[in-house]
Amino acid sequence: MELLNKSLENLFHTNIKNISMNLCSKGDVNSSYIAGYKEQKYFIKIQNKKNLPELYENQIEREIIGTSLCEKEGIPCPQVFDYNLEEKFIITEFMDYKLLGDLWRFLDDEERKDIKKQALRMLEKMNHIKSDSFGGIYKNGRIGQFRLWTDSYKNIVETALSDCCRYGSITEIECRAIRDKVNENCKNLNQKKQSSAVFAHLDLHWNNIFIDKSTRKIKGIFDFGSSLFTPEYMGYFRLNGGFLYGTDCFYDQEIICPVQIDNHEYQCAEILNTLDYFTFLSFKKLDYEKEKQILLK
């Protein structure tokens, strides 16, 4: 990683031998490090390059674009200092706050409710980021850009099915059954007025949010590697099971989903959400039968 080392030397103004690199997360899609010298620190994300699902392509480019779009709407994000799309790394500000996931069990009901409201305000700001097309937030990717949401929806599904066929977790007969289900869903979606394309993080959970421990305020949102332009209901749907990392639902009697999601939109969101997780489990060679049954039901 000669280019990464050079970037770090320029940021720290010292030889790479003097810079510590501590692994903080060795993920399946990305690995993260904290680089330090004296009192100065930076956060580094490196995209893994081997056999990744095409559904997760361009993680670093998504991170850069997502951060830029959100900053313009006043959404707090770590500042980007350097990146390289060929070497697939990004260097950002080190935010000296706590991850929400590490604090959640220590919060009382009112604090949890307030943080949920803060998250909904962040999502509302993301809904102000409009696009003329649905799908990829970058050009010329496997996940394309489309004028119609249903065309983008089908493209995302085909990308994921291609990945899963490659990993051997699904048969062609099962793929046809899922395509038929998606096509029927698209016919129903096309019968109503199309929503606007808005920016969706699609992975906004408690380990991607920095919180000030003393004020209980959101100080940073990061990890835009799943972000797309979608109808706004997609972002709200993903919060429900994803925000608390599957431990509980986001919405309750007091925190109500601010948009109406009809049955056809719900089916669309459920298919894409399940297919995303099914692809990840297939890539990791983990048990995916529950997700497959949801897709085939």
From TrEMBL:
Keywords: Transferase. InterPro entries: AGP_Transferase, Aminoglycoside_PTrfase, Kinase-like_dom_sf, Prot_kinase_dom. It comes from Lacrimispora xylanisolvens. The keyword Transferase applies. It holds the Pfam family APH. Residues 18-297 form the Protein kinase domain. One of its GO terms (molecular function) is ATP binding. This is Phosphotransferase family enzyme. PANTHER family: AMINOGLYCOSIDE PHOSPHOTRANSFERASE DOMAIN-CONTAINING PROTEIN (PTHR21310:SF54), AMINOGLYCOSIDE PHOSPHOTRANSFERASE-RELATED-RELATED (PTHR21310). The keyword Cell inner membrane does not apply.
